[in-house]
Amino acid sequence: MIQLENIEKVYQTKTIETVALNNINLKVAKSEFVSVMGPSGCGKSTMLNIMGLLDLPTQGQVKIDGQGFESFSDKALAQFRNQTLGFIFQSYHLINDLSVIDNVELPLLYRKVTRKERKRLASEALEKVGLGNRMRHFPTQLSGGQKQRVAIARAIVGRPKIILADEPTGNLDSVMGNEVMDILLKLNEVDHSTIVMVTHDETMARKTHRLVRLFDGTQVN
To answer: Which domains, and CATH codes, for the chain?
Structure first.
């Protein structure tokens, strides 16, 4: 489902060159749940951003579901992301002025989906993460764990093939973290979503199918 071939990412300024990723070769199978671990600054989030087509590699090729992207325009990349990928971030990225259901609907605004259908799909996604009774609340009225569940609902509302999660339990206590992890495991097992999760938590990582480790931008296993 995801293939990284000889990926290198270099950030350059006038005075310094920083190699964020070096010779990354990774394949993620359909319906696989892979976790990525490593110390801070080792390139985990950079790799996830390249997988998610949010950033371009300096060298190498990214393929998703057999598709390469060298000839894609920015508009075509954005459309592909919207239809194929769901993103979950550590800091939720919810809009406080919008209700929970309006936050979840956001990815559907960029598709040809009627307002009625958007509401239906958003409601279904919120029910799936156990927040059917919080649709009219606002993010400021929710706990951290509830906010992350809203973020998961937003990621899955468009029924993406792939979910990319960057430290989804990082801001949560152990109880809330386990609740969020259980939702991700269920999405993988029941809906067969392909999931790549960056985490610092070894306990969470070991619940997934496979653990990939990075160190100084290089894959070490």
So the answer is: 2-219 (3.40.50.300)
